[in-house]
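Handout, section B. The chain below has 271 residues.
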Amino acid sequence: MAERTKEMPLPLSREELVKELGHLGVKEGQIIEVHADLSAFDFVIGGARTVVDALLETAGRNGTILMAGETKDNSEPSEWESSKCEPYMYKSIREAIPPYDSRNSDLSDRGAITENFRHRSGVVTTSHPQVSYAAWGRYAKLLCNHQSLNYPLAEESPAARIYELKGYALLMGCDFDSLTSLHLAEYRTDDRPIHIGGACVSTAGGPQWRSYLDLHLDSRDFINVKNIMLKKNMIRQAVIGGCRCMFFSIIPAIDEATRWLENNSIYELYR
């Protein structure tokens, strides 16, 4: 293969991506939570479809791929950071927001790869209106069997199931602050305050606005976890098609995050 140059990046095919993923440590039969940014690659022939094809091929019939979604538009309008609305509009906006739909609701900033993946044959999803998951493969139904409306990334969530199943994380053009399952560490500590969220859900009686309890999650601390794991040689790294990729086990990642939060919490004085 010719050497890639800055002026003319080499196109990345499905076959080459499968081979590179294998060199990174991704193997058939593994359970892998994937976070991927298509724009981080130089040039993928076939785009998002090719990346998803390569992931499914690499995982194989006995493997499982898990991806997280986020439906920011189906949320409490009073918490929106942008200036889309004034307080007097909140009630009418809540009444007009369409209920979560696993096939059609926008996944906000999750990107083309997640969007392509969730429409693949055999993919199952959770039904949380704001932080859903999609999974394909041997343990897909087990991972997505239940996700509580309250505290949706805690022990009744795919984040806890992939921990129990000794899964892995694959970050392609993403950093640790994108890894959804790391939020499990925040629930396992007393590090975050509680807040009330809201979303529109489908019920037998039609669309209904539901309030739910959650933590005020903050993924910025997860970069510290990456630095700890790098020092301990817990992360395999590679550049694939110009995209920086990281592959590692979920269990030590969540354990390290839990320890870091326990030791650095601003709420330590109140425990």
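Note. The first strand starts at residue 31 and ends at 36. Compare this with the example in section A.
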